[in-house]
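Let us practice reading a record.
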Amino acid sequence: MVTIILTSHGSYAQGIYDTLACFSKDLNNVHTLCLGDDSICDFNAKAESLIASVTGDVLVLADMFQGTPFKTFLYTFARQ
């Protein structure tokens, strides 16, 4: 099964997750990580932890191409 990670600035990714929850009860393979008031270092650490916790194929959906959440996951996967 593919693991889906929703990442965004603010709470956009969490809003998408909440909307998906209205249509499906099985969201065990869907995770969110939002860049809010956390520092970039904290966000990077959370992203690395999240990636380390998943196995198999991963699909990352970001709110903005070349934005900080996008680049964080891109660079974190590239280092692995």
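A brief commentary: The mean pLDDT is 95.
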